[in-house]
């Protein structure tokens, strides 16, 4: 294509130059004949040369204009092509890649650097390129019937949010499966949940508030921002990773369930999740039906680990939505009704109006022991 364009471009210049020469030659012959016939004077010859110079200048200007237009045309075409290529590259990056075993072995350098091992598999550090570090989770093929793998790829593979970990690819060969994620060297939130008097490791209340807000926005996106409502069912500090800037990323969608947005409850045959973070209704229907509010209870337990108890309610009806929680943490909107006291045997709501604002987030504490622990650091 470039050779053809260059050939046409050179032909255009050649024809333009031939035209200029032909016009000059014609002007010269006409000038000679007129001079022989009329006996032109030097003044007439000078006028003829001036007219030929004007014609040459006009043709040259036309030629330069044509060249500039041609250059701009192909420059814009090049920009369009570059834009298309960038879109295709980004589009390929948005869709998880299916790797082979040879790819996984090469990425992990023969599974040489282990990051840890749990009940569901081992995690290895890997490298897609010199710039992209990844974490490769080799799933335990003796656990489950493949539904966890389908849940992980089917949910996280379709969503994109700044506070949700990105699935780069996967490996599936019979009973052998793996998931490839972005690598976060800071690890999980769990390692930073230390007492405030641990000055070296404690992140500070402002940073913890930003992390809590990021996790809340991730859950809000899962509940409201996708085509289907996505229920995580395993929100806990181990499943919140932190990047270099301590931006939280919710991960591990093995237990996730999808349901229509107009459906508020889901059915579960058995209780799943991490002990200590599972909502009571997941264990027993006596507490209510299982719904997206179960994620909100787990989030409340995570806040309890972070020394807050904004949304920790036994009764699912008393738990606010994640949108309300985000408003509380951001300090946006009008006045919000405070949630009832956690673990209160009474089912009545606390009829208290709490103005929103960052300085009031900590005032939502309702467990006296924790409130007294936090107050010296506010």
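^ Assign residues to that structure.
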């Amino acid at each position: 294509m470039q050779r053809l364009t260059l050939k046409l471009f050179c032909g255009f210049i050649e024809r333009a130059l031939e035209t200029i020469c032909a016009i000059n030659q014609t002007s010269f012959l006409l000038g000679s004949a007129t001079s022989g016939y009329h006996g032109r004077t030097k003044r007439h010859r000078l006028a003829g040369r001036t007219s030929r110079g004007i014609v040459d200048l006009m043709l040259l200007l036309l030629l330069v204009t044509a060249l500039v237009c041609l250059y701009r045309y192909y420059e814009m075409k090049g920009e369009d092509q570059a834009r298309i290529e960038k879109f295709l590259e980004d589009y390929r990056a948005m869709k998880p890649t299916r790797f082979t075993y040879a790819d996984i072995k090469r990425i992990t350098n023969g599974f040489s650097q282990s990051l840890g091992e749990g009940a569901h598999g081992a995690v290895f550090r890997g490298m897609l390129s010199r710039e992209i570090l990844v974490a490769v989770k080799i799933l335990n093929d003796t656990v489950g019937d493949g539904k966890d793998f389908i849940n992980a790829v089917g949910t996280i593979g379709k969503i994109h949010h700044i506070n949700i970990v990105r699935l780069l690819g996967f490996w599936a060969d019979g009973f052998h499966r793996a998931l490839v994620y972005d690598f976060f060297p800071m690890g999980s939130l769990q390692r930073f949940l230390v007492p405030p008097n641990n000055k070296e490791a404690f992140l500070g209340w402002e940073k913890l508030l930003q992390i809590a807000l990021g996790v809340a926005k991730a859950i809000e996106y899962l509940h409201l921002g996708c085509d289907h409502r996505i229920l995580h069912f395993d929100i806990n500090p181990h499943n919140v990773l932190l990047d270099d800037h301590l931006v939280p990323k919710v991960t591990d969608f093995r237990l996730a369930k999808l349901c229509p947005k107009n459906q508020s409850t889901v059915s579960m045959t058995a209780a799943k999740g991490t002990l200590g973070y599972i909502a009571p209704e997941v264990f027993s229907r006596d507490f209510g039906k299982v719904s997206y509010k179960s994620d909100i209870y787990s989030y409340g337990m995570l806040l309890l680990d972070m020394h807050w108890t904004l949304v920790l309610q036994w009764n699912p009806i008393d738990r606010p939505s994640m949108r309300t929680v985000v408003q509380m943490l951001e300090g946006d909107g009008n006045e919000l009704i405070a949630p009832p006291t956690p673990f209160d045997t009474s089912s009545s709501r606390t009829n208290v109006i709490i103005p929103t604002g960052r300085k009031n987030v900590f005032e939502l504490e309702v467990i006296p022991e924790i409130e007294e622990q936090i107050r010296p650091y506010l």
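The longest strand covers residues 121-127.
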